[in-house]
Amino acid sequence: MSRKNGVILALDVTDEKSALTISRDVADFIDAIKIGYPLVLGTGLSIAEKLSRIAPVIADFKVADIPNTDRLICEHVFEAGCDAVIVQGFTGPDSLFECVKTADDYKKKVFVVAEMSHPGGDHFFTDGVSKEIAAMAKKSGAFGIVAPATRPERVKELRGVIGNSMKIISPGVGAQGGSAADTIKAGADWVIVGRSIYGAKNPKEEAEKIKKEIEKYI
Ligand code: O7M
Q1: C-alpha 193 to ligand 1 mean position (Å)
Q2: pTM of the model
Q3: CA-to-CA distance for 64 and 91, rounded, in angstroms?
């Protein structure tokens, strides 16, 4: 997964036809497609392989279980053609390290949720907790963390914790009120954008607009 546009499409549509049509339409302006429960429960995990022919696929299952169950989930995700998986860190180091080990075995990547973007997202993920999770993610050898575009100052703080060797992907742009430019300026590598793109009348135009908004900062 390399950065050309700085945009990850959050593809939370629930049918295969829309998923493939929108992805092909915006392909020139995104670097990866994030899929999660809405699309996979709607279509089955086989959608991952189809989308992976368009762009690298990140499986957002926010994996949060005991190490053995986490490993089984990650194996399915990587066998299905996904390039990366998103996991929770609050389950502790043994669970996270098992995900990273499984990803390493498949030469794939792990992103760890450090703090969430919705209004209640800082209720349990308080300053110290988020920083501890980010530090643990770094220690685990994960590829990157997830940090909230709705709070760019938190992106900056968490960047301070992990340094420059890891990536930050940030949801919360557009529909949740965050600004793509401010998020990248705060230290994110990619913004994750869903409804603003897939819900637009012209998804391609919207994706291009976001790419253009951030291109001078990446
Ligand atoms: O642009 P949106 O708001 O339509 O979509 C944002 C996507 O990012 C959607 O798929 C959310 O589930 C996801 N997301 C958040 O919005 N906030 C978070 O804190 C974390 C995620 C996420 O991707 O977690 C890995």
Answers
A1: 8
A2: 0.98
A3: 6
